[in-house]
């Protein structure tokens, strides 16, 4: 007797019911955020340079730069005042900038996700401020606040260490005023790279989390992974996911190398995209 497939086995997958446009975070928001943080960091570094130059040029410090406690005390006093001034300034700036940033990303993520879902055939996709969305926004704002204030703390620590070394180090590159100038230049490079990373990484991460929320509240829980091919060295685990279908909460997204884990756009420097899809239908 010939084998006859059951009705269940005869079911054949076909195309998704709906496929949306790829979800892409805003390059304009990233650029704005980076510019805002850079401007704040530059203002701080310019102030440090002006104040420390004044201390270096003072007659007492020039005469006794590394010979007694007078220079040490002069630098410590100046650095203490600078730290307090810019600690307060960065806290005020961070509270405002993190709120503006999350608001901008929320608006863009909501708009682009609803448009994507509408192109997939969903009529009148909606956006509500559910507890999930509120929690995502609150967590993002608090984390970005911490990242911004961390710039000030790290830069101050680097400059403080360099100034103290300038008084005692046997290394010519760290001695005297040249050591402080080198430290300020290094701190400028550090802050520029840090703001670039924060802007790129957080724009992508916050957008990814909010687009997930908007998809869920509209009944779309799956997406296709779209590999960007933008990196100089492609991530093998991301190349392997290209074209695969995942649930938003798919545990497979958190497998593999830790640096590669997460949904598209979540890992640092990941430019992969999500393409929302509605559930598969099957032939009877």
Description:
The protein has a domain at 26-219. The model is unreliable at 1-12 (pLDDT under 50). The two termini are 24 Å apart. With 284 residues, it is mainly alpha-helical. The longest helix has 51 residues, at 69-119. The chain is built from six helices and five strands, in the order βαααααβαβββ.
The residue fraction in helices comes out at 55-70%
Tell me the radius of gyration.
26 Å
Q: How much of the residues is beta strand, in percent?
A: 5-15%
Total DSSP E strands = 5
Number of helices: 6
Oligomer classification: single chain
How far apart are the termini?
Answer: 24 Å
Write the H/E string, N to C. Answer: EHHHHHEHEEE
Give the strand line-up of the largest sheet. Answer: 3-2-4
Mean pLDDT: 86
Most strands sheet: 3 strands, antiparallel
What structural class should be given to the helix and strand makeup?
mainly alpha
- Which overall shape is indicated by the principal axes computed on the Cα atoms? elongated
Uncertain residue segments: 1-12
């Amino acid at each position: 007797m010939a084998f006859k497939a059951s009705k269940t086995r005869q079911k054949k997958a076909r195309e998704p019911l709906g496929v949306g446009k790829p979800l892409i975070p805003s390059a304009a928001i990233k650029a704005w955020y980076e510019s805002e943080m850079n401007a704040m960091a530059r203002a701080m570094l310019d102030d440090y340079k002006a104040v420390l130059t004044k201390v270096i040029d003072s007659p007492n410090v020039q005469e006794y730069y590394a010979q007694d406690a007078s220079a040490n005390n002069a630098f410590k006093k100046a650095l203490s005042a600078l730290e307090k001034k810019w600690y307060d300034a960065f806290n005020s700036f961070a509270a405002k900038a993190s709120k503006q940033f999350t608001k901008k990303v929320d608006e863009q993520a909501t708009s682009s996700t609803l448009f994507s879902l509408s192109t997939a055939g969903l009529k009148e996709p909606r956006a509500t401020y559910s507890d999930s969305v509120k929690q995502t926004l609150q967590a993002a704002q608090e984390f970005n606040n911490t990242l911004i204030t961390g710039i000030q703390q790290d830069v101050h620590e680097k400059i403080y260490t360099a100034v103290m070394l300038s008084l005692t180090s046997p290394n010519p590159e760290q001695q005297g005023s040249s050591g402080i100038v080198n430290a300020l230049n290094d701190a400028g490079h550090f802050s520029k790279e840090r703001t670039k990373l924060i802007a790129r990484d957080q724009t992508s991460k916050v957008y990814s989390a909010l687009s997930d929320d908007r998809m869920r509240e509209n009944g779309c829980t799956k997406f296709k992974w779209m590999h960007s091919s933008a990196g100089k060295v492609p991530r093998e685990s991301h190349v392997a996911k290209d074209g695969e279908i995942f649930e938003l909460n798919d545990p497979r997204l958190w497998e593999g190398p830790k640096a590669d884990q997460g949904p598209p756009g979540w890992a640092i420097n990941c430019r992969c995209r999500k393409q929302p899809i509605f559930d598969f239908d099957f032939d009877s």
